[in-house]
Specification:
CATH topology of one domain in chain A: Tetracycline Repressor, domain 2
Low-confidence stretches of chain A: 1-25, 223-227
CATH class of one domain in chain A: Mainly Alpha
Shape of chain A: elongated
Largest interface: C-D, 66 and 67 residues
Structural class of chain A: mainly alpha
Mean pLDDT of chain A: 80
Number of strands of chain A: 0
CATH superfamily of one domain in chain A: Tetracycline Repressor, domain 2
Helix content of chain A: over 70%
CATH architecture of one domain in chain A: Orthogonal Bundle
Order of helices and strands of chain A: HHHHHHHHHH
Oligomer: homotetramer
Strand content of chain A: under 5%
Chain lengths: ~230, ~230, ~230, ~230
DNA sequence: AATGAATGAGCCTTCATTCAT
DNA sequence: GATGAATGAAGGCTCATTCAT
């Protein structure tokens, strides 16, 4: 629950603790201060164009300090991904487990929830980052695939199967449906972190609504089924 | 048909000519030889991680030769985008103008055509490239937006309006629909050029079929309209 | 007297300090070690033909270290000029302010002093350097003009006005006189740092003596005043 | 007589000839067209900063053509010096040989003549060029010393000896006097081709007049003759 | 633990020089 | 003779990484 909330929010409790024991707190908080700074810069500039000097400067430490916590730039990258995404995904899984209601509403909830909890957050830049850099860092790509994508797909798979089993959705090629559902979310983040500045801004909520409308129209076990 | 064909096809006629006048032919063919080599490497490694030595080596020339044709690495990048994508898009526009048939079929044709002519080609890496690098090259992002994205969206807009006007599609929020249609295509290329190697390969044709099925289900002017 | 002394003299105190805290001392001494090395090489080879590798090697550091202290080769060049010449000029101004005696002796003192304190030092190469490179570095030329030439001319102007006011010198076109006085000094350095190796060595002291004699008395065979 | 005149003047006769036999004339004129272009650029930008592409372009030929006439950039530099200066000096010697009148007037004539025939011409940039580059091209410096400087000094030596022998000048350290006379001329060209653009423009004629006045009369307030 | 000066490999870019046409 | 495409060595500059303090 706690870590999943808005990742951009200041760590209020720790901050209070640090006022009392500034040194001690620092020690523990350092790694995540560093990955937070690195996340911002990686997302903003990409991996290659991000200088460790800048990461250190943003975190308020010296460049050498980075190497006390991370063996290399790549290790820092990996930590950014690991720390940023996994907790958020875990929280999403929990929300799913507790959900009760129609599968259509479940899907909508998952989509909008993802947008509010991840996509519309600093973390939203991570998928774009992974996409951009996966070729050069296969290990990280593999990690992301295993730990994030697979679990995310499982979530959607379960939701779709739930709907089909209940007769709410028509029989579906579930794996492909997953792709179709993921695609717009992916597009939203990609858009946000690459081309959105060239005019033609997307309105995320409206986009997701339309997407959901079309999706449900297509998934539902319609009385007659066209075509 | 001619200019649109597979960009990867060897330049057969010129090759014959070059046997006779190697130096002269080179002169004309060089730029596209260089952009072809650059496309491969940019797509494979990203802009920053691509060394001009490697581009030159792949094109079979020395590094200095690159600078006879392109002022800088960035200029080369821009040329890759311009040369690779714009002609393909123009050809797609022509195909649309000549199309006769149902709007549903038109949409399917455009989607599959895009996959066969661009997405499933070496050019498929370009969108991913743009996405990855647009932050660092706003000028190129702008260029791509103006020359490719805007025109591509216009194409889809026309197709959707055609369907709505004919009563074939239900009334739609057309702009959002465009996004929804583009998203899976984008996802396909992004997937292909980033994470596909981590297992969980996508089968493009099957994916597009499902996508189209859901899409049409959702777009059609259903006799009663569910939900 | 102190700051003005021979710029080539080793930094004796700091050297002792460095034995104790080698790293710490370096930090402060580096910039002038680097400009000293750069001065030698710029004077010897000219700006363009001087490689930063060589500057670094002569200063006993790596090439990258140069960039910790100077943003570019040009910035290094500018620092060489600023650090080398300006302090020497300031000291000369002080000497003038404290001078008492005939204006003829004042002039001789300024001329010989310049030779001993600048011209006959490693700094003597700087004017030649400026001359050689001013076309390609207008900014540096401007800087040198404002900070060195203008102030030097003011010094001479004051000395000449002093002599004319006292009736010691005849009425003069003072600005042109300044040029005439400066010219031989300029020539000495230019000669020293360009053609002197081709035989026909100049003997600076003798040259300056003759120069001064002619300056004060003219060439003519005397009392009656020709023309 | 002809070659000595204004070197900047168009070669009128040859131009006429070339109208008739363009090809034949070209062949002979090429080398000097190339050195003329090179002179301009060397003087303007210095040796290192002058690109052979630009020299070729200014001469209206291709870069490869340069190598038909000159073995290397340095050879071109040498040819520029050789062709530009030697004829001008020879002409000056002739003027001296024919001179009749007072030695003071002779000196004035030589000084002003030099200014009008060389200093104030495109050739005026050559001394500055030699000064700037002599360190890197000792061979050229030697050449210039032997062919230009030595002969120029001989000219002045003869003029001064003439004046002393006639009792017109007081007994002089003639070699140093030569330096003193040359210095302002050198300064004029150096000034023109380096720092003049920073304000503080020199007026050459006025400068030379003052220089000559001081040279002949000295600075002192006259009749009684100090020292 | 933290610092930041120092390193050096690596890359983009330039340009004198060559050579097939 | 003339061309200009091609070359490749060289240099300025960057930045991840190290290590003495």
């Amino acid at each position: 629950m706690p870590t999943f909330a808005d990742p951009a929010a200041p760590d209020t409790d720790d901050a209070a603790a640090s006022a009392r024991r500034p040194r001690a707190r620092r020690k523990e908080a350092r790694p995540s201060e560093l990955t937070a700074a690195a996340l911002d810069l990686f997302v903003e500039k990409g991996f290659a164009a991000t200088r460790l000097d800048d990461v250190a400067a943003r975190a308020g430490v010296s460049k050498g300090t980075l190497y006390l916590y991370f063996d290399s730039k790549e290790a820092l990258f990996k930590a950014v991904v690991e720390e940023g995404i996994v907790p958020a995904l875990a929280a999403a899984e929990q929300r799913f487990a507790e959900y009760e209601g129609s599968s259509a509403e479940l899907l909508r909830s998952l989509l909008l929830g993802w947008w509010q909890q991840i996509g519309n957050t600093r973390l939203g830049g991570v998928p774009k980052l992974i996409i951009s850099e996966s070729r050069n860092f296969p290990e990280i790509a593999q990690f992301y695939h295993d730990r994030v994508i697979s679990r995310g797909r499982s979530l959607l798979r379960a939701a779709l199967q739930r709907g089909v089993a209940a007769g709410e959705f028509r029989p579906l090629d579930i794996e492909s449906c997953i792709d179709v559902i993921i695609a717009p979310l992916l597009m939203l983040t990609v858009w946000r972190y690459s081309l959105c500045s060239c005019g033609n801004d997307i309105e995320p909520e409206r986009f997701l609504d339309t997407q959901f409308g079309i999706l449900i129209h297509g998934l539902l076990a319609a009385p007659e089924g066209a075509r």
